[in-house]
Amino acid sequence: MAASAHKLIPADPEKVMVIRHVTSEVVTMSTPFLRFGRIKIGGRGTLVRLATGSVAVFSPVALTETAKKETDALGEVKYLVASDQEHHIFLESWHKAYPTAKILAPETLPSYRDKQNYFKLPQANYILFPDKGPAPSITPEFDAEFDVEYVPVHPNKELIVNHRPSKTLIQADLLFNLPAREQFSKTDVSPTTGILTRIFNALQNTRGSAVWQKRFLWYGASSSDRPRFNESMRKIAGWDFERIVPCHGDVVESGGKGIFEKVMEWHLKAKDAKKST
What we know:
CATH architecture: 4-Layer Sandwich
Protein name: Metallo-beta-lactamase domain-containing protein
InterPro entries: DUF4336 (IPR025638), RibonucZ/Hydroxyglut_hydro (IPR036866)
Radius of gyration: 18 Å
Organism: Zasmidium cellare ATCC 36951
Low-confidence stretches: 273-277
Oligomer: single chain
Mean pLDDT: 94
């Protein structure tokens, strides 16, 4: 892990990680996380056990002793997924524990890690999603259970998946559901205090009309190629899911499809979507 990452994460994640079996197939690992070392947005990794017994790990968090025991009890780790180019800081420890696992990531991740002086992961382990061109097929067992949409228009290069058997949408920075209550629940720190945190909580939530999150996505995250972004949001909206597991903020346990449609309303109704080449 790069030295700069240490100020973003808890000193002893074992003490503050919340591990929860959301379903028999889906396990979340929620921890405190400070954006820019100050804003309390929380972090979350997600484990999914496939029907074959293989395990996919999305946005890996610290591999504590308890986290490893929970993971090993679930099955054999075959996939490590950097759900965007920012959610990769613990890949080194997970790769060393599970050296044969495939690493799914945006094509920008290897060079991005090199620039930040992270451990160089073996090129042979990567399955990279290109900014242009068709998305790669993963494996028959993975493709049988997951819908996948890569959204390179988003500044963080989002890799969105839907686990069809559990109807669970898993994503990193596409949609926030702040405050990060669960992620700070084992600490003595409130997820709603501090001026910067309060501002971010007000902007990045799903309450009411979610107008500020809509504005952030419309005028910020999608601005480089909004038609292509709109097309991706329409594709995701066509999936069958009820739950949303975000990396930042609380899990949307039910009604997730409606929440997604509300937050992405402007993109779903936009008239300028076009087929990307």
